[in-house]
Amino acid sequence: MSATGIKDTLSTESSSRVAGQRFAYASFHARKRIAQRTSIDLLKLMSYLDADVCVNMGYHAGMHRRHLLFYSAPDDTCFVAIQDPRYGKVITVLPLEYHRRLAWAVSDEQCELAKQRYYAYMEAQEALQRLKHEQASAVANPSNIKLKAKDQSLSIKYRSVMTTERTYKVVVQAIYISEDTSSKKKSLFKLLVGYYIDDFQKSIMSQLGNPALYEKVDASIQRKRLFQGSVYALCFQNCKDKTVSYTLNLRHRNDAEWLTLQYYQQRRHMQQVLVPYQTPYLALPAPRSEAFSPVS
């Protein structure tokens, strides 16, 4: 890439400062390497890392830096981003051959998984954009809704002309991996979702663009004492009809299982280290000089 191209890429620093909502940000060195080695947009890459559109391959021994494998569509290949998870700072971006020489080799299965996550994320974004477009069209052309309502059955027609707002009462459940590697569900909270013409899935998807929903989910997961990495999906279930539900996948189940195993292994190791220091009580023998003689 030419010096002009690198200069244009580095000028995105001001844009990244404006986007204060992002956690991931690139260091000066990382911005140069992204411009030299890849064709991906800097801000898009940061958003992909924040959205976990990558494969976490773990840490280098003794380093607080995680290795994130991501797929670059413009280059049709994978790269590895080195990030400090404490601050979100991306240290550098390495091609696979560089990563093999400096750290370890990346398998073809990991590359395929990173590619699948990228396309799954793009499909979800396109579906969300289509939903927003449909909602905007419905607001701009209310006559279309009236014409469709005439073709519905009488029951649907009756519900469509009701003046009171209709809602679904939905329970949000976390689907996670337990310590024995089995999938389990735990209820997080309940919420009211706007009624969308007898389509439960569209009603739920209309809420997925609200950042407050994800903040509430994170807070509830922490309150329920669940390990964040073990949660791989969210289930939105209709309280009145348990057979009606919608599942939102957050990460691959195999990744959640791997993170859970690592988490409990660390906990067991910590317990073994702390066992010699654990005692149900603290008792010290009294000095002989302070022993009292029996009362006669």
Tell me the span between the first and last alpha carbons: 99 Å
Outline, from the CA principal axes? Answer: flat
List the uncertain runs.
Answer: 1-20, 153-164
What's the main sheet like?
5 strands, mixed
Instruction: Give, in order, the helices and strands.
Output: HHEHHEEEEHHHHEEHHEEH
Number of helical segments with 4 or more residues: 11
What topology, given as strand order, has the largest sheet? Answer: 1-5-4-3-2
**How does the helix and strand content classify structurally?**
alpha+beta
Number of domains: 2
Rg (C-alpha, Å): 27 Å
Helix content: 40-55%
Beta-strand residue fraction: 15-25%
The mean pLDDT is: 80
Report the count of strand segments: 9
Description:
The structure is a single chain. This protein has helices at 3-10, 13-18, 28-37, 42-50, 96-102, 108-140, 142-150, 154-160, 200-205, 211-223, 253-274, and strands spanning 25-26, 55-59, 66-72, 77-84, 89-95, 167-177, 183-194, 231-238, 245-249. It is of the alpha+beta class and 296 residues long. The strands form two sheets. The protein has a five-stranded mixed sheet. It has a four-stranded antiparallel sheet with strand order 7-6-8-9. Helix 1 crosses helix 3 (28-37) and helix 6 packs across helix 7. Helices cover 44% and strands 22% of the residues. A hairpin with a 4-residue loop joins strand 4 and strand 5 (89-95). The relative contact order is 0.07. The termini are far apart. Mean pLDDT is 80; it is low at 1-20 and 153-164. It folds into two domains: 3-115, no CATH class; 162-274, no CATH class.
